[in-house]
Write a structure and sequence with these properties.
The protein is mainly α. It has seven helices and no strands.
Length: 162
């Protein structure tokens, strides 16, 4: 649209005029995708957003309210700390999440979702227990003891044949 709407004309009639003139000039001929079917899901109003997230490889968590994101992070904490190497890393990750939870609790926004800080020592203990279980699973299992060799019979059984 190169010109402005004339003051006495309604928007609808002015837009119709612009489209008609563009059609007469052939500006809608040979457009990309002309004659092709509309992609599935295009009627859904959020399909463009899903397509964008899929193309960019992004998570939809960024679109969620902060309370729900914090709740999900709290629930996923055991998986998050599982691959951490040191207790210091685990404590730092849990402390960071707890700080964000407390900050949200002070000034809640969005839908209220009941959420509270994690107990750092419990998470560390669970992390230690999982590591110990994983180490135990990797340790070679000693072979079961073989049957002991039969001991020599006592002298009285040899003499009396018992």
């Amino acid at each position: 649209m190169t010109e402005r709407k004339p003051p006495g004309m309604t928007y609808e009639s002015w837009i119709d005029k612009q489209v008609r003139e563009a059609t007469e000039r052939g500006e809608f001929d040979n457009l990309q995708g002309a004659g092709k079917p509309i992609p599935p899901g295009a009627a859904d109003e959020d399909s463009w957003l899903r397509g964008y997230l899929k193309r960019e490889g992004a998570s939809a968590d960024a679109l969620l309210p902060e309370s729900i994101v914090l709740r999900r992070e709290r629930e996923r904490m055991p998986e998050t700390v599982r691959d951490m190497v040191s207790e210091k890393e685990v404590r730092a990750a849990v402390t960071d999440l707890n700080d964000r939870i407390v900050q949200w609790l002070r000034m809640p926004s969005g839908p209220y979702v009941p959420i509270g800080p994690l107990k750092v020592d419990e998470v560390v203990e669970n992390w230690r227990a999982e590591r110990e279980a994983a180490r135990a699973a990797r340790r070679p299992v000693p072979p079961p003891p073989s049957d002991p060799e039969p001991a020599e019979r006592p002298w009285w059984r040899r003499i009396f044949g018992r």
